[in-house]
Amino acid sequence: MKIDGLEDVLKQLEIEETNYGASDGHEWFGNGAETKSVSPINGQVIAKVKQANKDDYERMVKANREAFKTWREMPAPKRGEIVRQFGLALREKKDALGRLVTIEMGKSLQEGWGEVQEMIDICDYATGLSRMLYGKQTHSERFRHRMYEQWHPLGVVGIISAFNFPVAVWSWNLGIALACGDTCIWKPASHVPLTAIACQKILMRVIKENDLPAGISTLLIGRGSEVGELMLTDKHVNLVSYTGSTKIGRHVAEEVSKRFGKTILELGGNNAVIVTPHAEMELAARAILFGAVGTAGQRCTSTRRVIVEKSRKEELIKTLKDYYGRVTIGNPLDQSNLMGPLVDTGAVDMYLEAIEIVKKQGGKMLWGGEKLDHEGGCYVTPSVAEVRRDLEIVCEETFAPLLYIIEYSGDIQNAIDIQNDVPQGLSSSIFTNDLIESETFLGHTGSDCGIANVNVGTSGAEIGLAFGGEKETGGGRESGSDAWKLYMRRQSNTINWSGKAELAQGIKFD
Ligand code: NAD
Predict the structure, then answer these.
(1) Same structural domain, 27 and 42
(2) Using CA atoms, how far apart are residues 113 and 108, in angstroms rounded to an integer?
(3) Which end of the chain is flanked by fewer CB atoms within 10 Å, N or C?
(4) Which run of H or of E encompasses 348?
């Protein structure tokens, strides 16, 4: 099978047969080993990349540090104007970039375009934010003293991103960090180097048109254990914003905190939907379907568990079975398909293995879980299993379209307790029309996740609120609300204009 329109997409995004994987924002280079980008749609090599090595890394961070000296002095709204122009450039390339996301990662074209739209949205947001980097002021207990806090640019931000959101996660960090006066270095996941190269090229046009120095935003394609690791131990990288698995996130946290660097950790989830006796079944089932099957179950916010009240269980299973039966699986560029492939053959093996473990631990597979051989790609059928809440595998994140059904009975607090009884704490939702149930879910004894929704699924957040999760999801926050504060250095200032010396707390020292 051929990937339709591939040549055109590559041409529009200036992707060559072999590409350099390192860029300081002005030039391209790459002195590391060559790697291939393989499409999960049909196993075809899309293009090759010359990766970065340690020397390239050093060159890049030097450029980042140098650029920071001028970038931090540029008035914030002028930095916001650069981000605005990047948003405009993305609008021009939305179609092609969305298609490349789909070709390289495998998510449906609707979701590929959606990811680029998210980049555009965050650029708009960050442009406005550049005029709203507010600090607080308060009244001093001392005569003619003024107290206020202000926010200064932080420095170099290292962005390490996961394969499943090849472009959006970078832009969430980049847009906000640039508005805040930081410079950025990006290490994307090894599965998706070409989308990263395409993004950097779009940004470089804006950098060139505005005569900005190299080092505002640099790109570093290479293995996590090599070039990614360098960022963790480098004291010149002031903040490491890491998106990926909890296993590697733990290592990132340890290494960066050893040098008292800052981190934003966006790690694995194990997200649940609670379906109560007062749920609208159609609404719930649609949200569960998108949550579990969208992006082939490879979102950090994918729905992994459904906790359903005993009396609604059979009805839910029946409705879901009907919906699952209508899921079309195949080439994600074809918009009649709802589900594309998993990211690679390793992911397919991991999925099939997880299903065997579910069975071994006593779970009952209800449907799905087959490998599909068509089109030479990494296609599977999505699966549903009925399980006990405490199976070991149910407490882990299986990054694939495997959904668990768990029954609860009695009070809503029982369902919430089941939901919270896993190590992760990213996204959660309840389907109910009962006020007491939804308020209990959102209250102090309710969901312990960073995201808690009512009559909205676990997956598909907007950029306006801070995004992130608790517990083993890492506690980081990105995107909207006041997440920008993590990208800045806070300073508390007291100014004495009384002409007299006066100590706080009334202390006399004469
Ligand atoms: P991963 O942990 O395998 O890799 C993530 C990134 O870390 C990649 O860029 C990788 O190259 C890099 N890396 C690997 N070893 C490293 C090291 N020693 N030092 C520095 N960097 C290193 O994750 P993945 O398979 O790409 O993505 C899937 C995971 O990401 C899932 O667990 C998913 O839940 C999580 N995720 C979380 C969020 C969130 O916002 N919470 C968003 C997307 C994905």
Answers:
(1) yes
(2) 9
(3) C
(4) helix 345-360
CA of 244 to the centre of ligand 1 (A): 2
Do residues 332 and 224 share a domain? no
Percent of the chain's residues with pLDDT above 70? 100
Which residue range is the domain that position 361 belongs to?
Answer: 271-454
- Pick the atom of ligand 1 nearest to 248's CA: 2
| Residues 260 and 317 both lie in one domain | no
Q: What is the mean pLDDT of each run of 10 residues along the chain (510 residues)?
A: 91 98 98 97 97 97 98 98 98 98 98 98 98 97 98 98 98 98 98 98 98 98 95 98 98 98 98 98 98 98 98 98 97 96 97 98 98 90 96 97 98 98 98 98 98 97 96 97 98 98 96
Ligand 1 center–CA 422 separation, angstroms:
20
Residue 499 maps to a domain: no
- Asked if residues 152 and 31 have their Cβ atoms less than 8 Å apart, the reply is no
Residues 434 and 387 in one domain: yes
Q: For position 374, what pLDDT does the model report?
A: 77
Asked if 289 contacts 327 with a C-beta cutoff of 8 angstroms, the reply is yes
Q: Global pTM?
A: 0.98
Number of folded domains that form the chain: 2
Ligand 1 mean position to 191 CA, how many Å?
A: 11
Q: Which two tokens stand for residue 251?
A: 């290592």
266 annotated active-site:
yes
486 and 347 in a common domain:
no
Check residue 67 and give its pLDDT.
Answer: 98
Query: Residue 472: what pLDDT?
Result: 98
Return left, alpha or beta for 333; rule: phi > 0 is left, psi -120 to 50 is alpha, else beta: alpha
Q: Is residue 465 part of a domain?
A: no
Q: For the residues of 454-505, what is the DSSP string, one character each?
A: ESS-SS---SSSEE--EETT-S--EESTTGGGGGEEEEEEEEE-SSS---GG
Predicted confidence at residue 175, as pLDDT, reads 98
Q: Which pair of structure tokens corresponds to residue 165?
A: 């959101």
300 has catalytic annotation: yes
